[in-house]
């Protein structure tokens, strides 16, 4: 029961951060908190069942891999699309070829 309440609180915090923030990095972090809440709820529901079902655990593991990859791509896009991000991210001064 405790983990279901914790998942609900994390979900609400993630939604609040997603809709209240204007900064894209904060939105990305809020989206990660939101997905963590969903994963926690899935594992909590799977642990209550007797016998323990392995399918939700496999789904959560797959979701974690997808979340890490999409977060990496989103961070790369944020760096690339930020003002001066494409040159300064590589350590070169702006305008230097």
From TrEMBL:
The chain crosses the membrane at residues 30-49, 58-79. Keywords: Cell membrane, Membrane, Transmembrane, Transmembrane helix. It is found in: Cell membrane. It holds the Pfam family Oxidored_q2. InterPro entries: CPA3_antiporter_subunitC, NUOK/Mnh_C1-like. Signal peptide: none annotated. Its main location: membrane. It is a multi-pass membrane protein. Belongs to the CPA3 antiporters (TC 2.A.63) subunit C family. PANTHER family: ANTIPORTER SUBUNIT MNHC2-RELATED. This is Multisubunit sodium/proton antiporter, MrpC subunit. It comes from Aquisalimonas asiatica. The lineage of its organism: Bacteria, Pseudomonadati, Pseudomonadota, Gammaproteobacteria, Chromatiales.
């Amino acid at each position: 029961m405790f983990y279901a309440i914790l998942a609900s609180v994390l979900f609400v915090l993630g939604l609040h951060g997603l809709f209240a923030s204007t900064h894209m990095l904060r939105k990305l972090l809020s989206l990660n908190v939101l997905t963590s809440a969903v994963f926690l709820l899935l594992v909590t529901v799977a642990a209550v069942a007797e016998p323990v079902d392995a399918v939700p655990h496999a789904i959560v593991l797959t979701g974690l891999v997808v979340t890490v990859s999409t977060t990496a791509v989103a961070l790369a896009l944020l760096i690339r699309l930020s003002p001066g991000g494409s040159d300064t991210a590589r350590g070169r001064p702006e305008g230097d070829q």
